[in-house]
Amino acid sequence: MMGIKPDLLCWHVVFFLYFCLSLASDIATEIADYADVAKRIIDLAVFGAAQNRSYRRLADFTDTIGNRVSGSENLNMAIKYMYNAMTQDGLDVHLEPVKIPHWVRGKESAVMIVPRVKNLAILGLGSSVGTPPEGIEAEVLVVQSFEELKHRASEATGKIVVFNQPFVSYGETVAYRAYGASEAAKVGAVATLIRSITPFSINSPHTGWQDYQDGVKRIPTACITVEDAELMWRLSKRGQKIMIRVTMAAKTFPDADSFNTVAEIKGWQHPEQVVLLSGHLDSWDVGQGAMDDGGGAMISWEVLSLIKDLGLRPRRTLRTVLWTAEEQGGVGAQQYYNLHKVNISNFDLVMESDLGTFRPEALQFTGSDAARKVMEEVVKLLAPINMTKLETHGEGTDISPWMQAGVPGQGTEKHCST
Ligand SMILES: *[C@@H]1O[C@H](CO)[C@@H](O)[C@H](O)[C@H]1NC(C)=O
Ligand SMILES: *[C@@H]1O[C@H](CO)[C@@H](O)[C@H](O)[C@H]1NC(C)=O
Ligand SMILES: *[C@@H]1O[C@H](CO)[C@@H](O)[C@H](O)[C@H]1NC(C)=O
Ligand SMILES: [Zn+2]
């Protein structure tokens, strides 16, 4: 994957502008009057003293802390790190307690033993149960869809079900990772190995969250590589018997104490009104969590830094929330919503960056026609960074409770993929 382009984080500008506006009748004129302010923010972020700052912050954060899985000591360290860093930056920071899942991967391995011996690269899925210490050894049933599993239900008893579903899109194909274990358990499988949810693989399994259904036996579940899933599919098409031994020491502990990390600059005119921007501090346990979602967290902080550095005072409160336990299903965000929805009429816009932080192409926005009219004017101010497109479908796990309740939402921008 390409590196981050820290010089082009137009979010800063959009966030601030949206929220400077007092919605006068001649919106277009009023917004155009902010061209100057927009230019100052862009100059500072892209060409000035703050050039590359969010990248340097991200590098220091990930180099210092490393990965930050829900319930881990690293995640606690990450929260302390950000609390201190944003406080030193002169921002108004506080922590809001949340109970979060605590799952530990433990040692894990898998080996194909029939028709030939081959080690399989696996990554257990978050919340998976482990196997007995000696592992589970069983014959394999390879299927390409839930449909096929249904048709071949009678063949699944006592087997390890391997899902070799083709990749369509993350949003669609992720159902196999999320529900594969319970679907296979319903027809008597003893474990599941699921092709990683990705269009590319260099013998690289992915991890992620999975959901056990209530009342269904919990069986161990892990992702395998695209290559190994296809290998076993080809073998099974030829009628060859496949045996695998999978060993996983995964364990779930009681819920752990954690926090959403909140920093803000109070609005001078409408301090009770909030424009919320966000990313999540937790990550999975097998990478650095730089893309997912260190970048989103750092640019959400950088917005406040830029406003402060320029001595700008927003009309409404500009609030950055760094969520905890997003990967476990938006646990921190859900709790934040439950606690603060009493003030929902004061939330003007909620934003999230959790799809990587590259060179932006467009803003994705969901809201009323009136709100869209405002955003259409705001993006015009982003001409200096060549990003004036406004698209539909603002979305994100952590802001979805607000958006479902009708608050305008802005997801990640679209990014160049090359
Ligand atoms: C920012 O990063 C770019 C690309 O790596 C580099 O050319 C530029 O000199 C950096 N600027 C600063 C102030 O570090
Ligand atoms: C709701 O908003 C009021 C006014 O800004 C504030 O004092 C109060 O703390 C808020 N309540 C919650 C739960 O956020
Ligand atoms: C915007 O596009 C113009 C023309 O392609 C280019 O010269 C300029 O460097 C771009 N600006 C930024 C900030 O990327
Ligand atoms: Zn994420």
From TrEMBL:
Q: What are its GO biological-process terms?
A: peptide catabolic process; proteolysis
Q: Which residues form the Peptidase M28 domain?
A: 260-410
Could you tell me which CDD domains the record lists for this protein? M28_Pgcp_like
Cross-referenced InterPro entries: CPQ, Peptidase_M28
Primary location: endoplasmic reticulum
Classify the source by domain of life.
Answer: Eukaryota
Q: Where is this region: Disordered?
A: 393-418
Localization per record? Endoplasmic reticulum; Golgi apparatus; Lysosome; Secreted
Molecular-function GO terms, alphabetical: carboxypeptidase activity; metal ion binding; metallodipeptidase activity
State one Pfam family annotation. Peptidase_M28
Say if the entry is tagged with keyword Endoplasmic reticulum. yes
Question: For this UniProt entry, what's an example GO CC term?
Answer: endoplasmic reticulum
Q: Which UniProt keywords apply?
A: Carboxypeptidase, Endoplasmic reticulum, Glycoprotein, Golgi apparatus, Hydrolase, Lysosome, Metal-binding, Metalloprotease, Protease, Secreted, Signal, Zinc, Zymogen
The entry's family comment says: Belongs to the peptidase M28 family.
Under what name is this protein listed? Carboxypeptidase Q
In which organism is this protein found?
Answer: Anabas testudineus (Climbing perch)
**Upper classification of the organism:** Eukaryota, Metazoa, Chordata, Craniata, Vertebrata
| Gene that encodes it | CPQ
